[in-house]
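Researcher: Quick test of sequence recovery. Tokens follow.
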């Protein structure tokens, strides 16, 4: 089931002998039954970002033959707009997504060999815009850029494994072929300027690309196992990557340049989930282990070029105290330096056990 972005509607689909697809009004609890019957097995449901449209993927059984069914609905009234025909009937639709601007819909197949495994549709009318037919095998995943201008997709094949497309026309922009193994995760930066891709293997498994042109920016070679997940911070400043393995499995990068900021030690198994807070000052990581499986991290931005030499010396003492769990004492001179620091840095110092005094102790 899925809520509409405006929180007014809930779409639910069930399996079993009484399969139903129902649209609920959250406030009044009234329902509109869109489909019913044991032959309809609801698999995917997704609302457009403006809540006006609903797309559903079903497996339909007719005459002992199972086929997929992709339908576009009016998200307000529940009226069927169009059955979308273009995919191979006997294959499972594994991913369904509207563009952030709600104008387009993309669907993909898990089929091993099928040219029609990735299709771009008009998000309002359901008309087929283009079959993105350069992939020869099933689609692992795809992503719309936040500005809806680009689509990045990856498949199970090595040739044409990852491709950057025009999100409005479906035209190919560039094949992203620098990885040595299959790409399994893709992520655009919130400003759509960058694309990060992670692959299987121990080398060239994390690459940063220009999100508009597909040109390679940097290979981030620190992880020594398969990349599992990628996540940009909402302010575009950071990229967090998680991988398999006990070492180097969680790394924080500069989201603009790809420079490594820090290897975050704490998890001993592969990373399942990474999520940043809306303000980009916290993020949480979840791993597949019995202990330390969820860690909350706090982020501070320090611009050393904007600090005076006295402030840098003061902060070095603070970091030393924090690392060794010691108290730090600030005399009158250091208190004046402290007062001129950025408020965020002041919070960092306050997080350490700081004691203010009138004379040096």
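Model:
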């Amino acid at each position: 089931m899925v809520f509409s972005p405006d929180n007014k509607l809930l779409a639910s689909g069930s399996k079993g002998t009484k399969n139903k697809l129902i649209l609920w009004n959250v406030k009044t609890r009234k329902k509109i039954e869109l489909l019913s019957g044991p032959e309809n097995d609801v698999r995917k449901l997704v609302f457009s970002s403006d809540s006006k449209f609903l797309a559903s993927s079903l497996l339909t059984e007719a005459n002992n033959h199972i086929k997929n069914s992709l339908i576009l609905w009016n998200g307000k009234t529940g009226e069927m707009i169009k059955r979308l025909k273009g995919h191979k009937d006997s294959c499972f639709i594994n991913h369904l997504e509207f563009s952030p601007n709600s104008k387009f819909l993309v669907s993909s197949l898990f089929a091993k060999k099928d040219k029609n495994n990735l299709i771009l549709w008009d998000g309002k009318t359901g008309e087929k815009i283009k079959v993105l037919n350069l992939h020869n095998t099933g689609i692992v995943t795809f992503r719309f850029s936040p500005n809806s201008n680009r689509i990045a997709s990856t498949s199970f094949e090595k040739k044409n494994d990852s491709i950057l497309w025009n999100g409005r026309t479906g035209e190919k922009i560039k094949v992203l072929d620098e990885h040595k193994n299959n790409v399994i995760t893709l992520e655009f930066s919130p400003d759509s300027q960058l694309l990060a891709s992670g692959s299987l293997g121990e080398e060239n498994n994390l690459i940063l690309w220009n999100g508009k042109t597909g040109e390679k920016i940097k290979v981030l070679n620190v992880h020594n196992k398969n990349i599992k997940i990628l996540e940009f911070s909402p302010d575009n400043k950071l990229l967090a990557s998680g991988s398999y393995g006990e070492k180097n499995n969680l790394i924080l990068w500069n989201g603009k340049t790809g420079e490594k900021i820090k290897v975050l030690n704490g998890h001993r198994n592969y990373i399942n989930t990474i999520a940043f807070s809306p303000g980009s000052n916290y993020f949480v990581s979840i791993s597949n282990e019995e202990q330390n499986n969820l860690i909350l991290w706090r982020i501070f931005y320090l611009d050393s070029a904007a600090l005076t030499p006295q402030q840098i010396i003061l902060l070095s003492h603070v970091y030393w105290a924090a690392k060794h769990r010691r108290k730090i004492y600030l005399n009158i001179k250091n208190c004046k330096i402290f007062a001129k620091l950025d408020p965020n840095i002041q919070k960092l110092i306050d997080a350490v056990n700081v004691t203010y005094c009138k004379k040096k102790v």
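Residues 352-361 have pLDDT under 50 and may be disordered.
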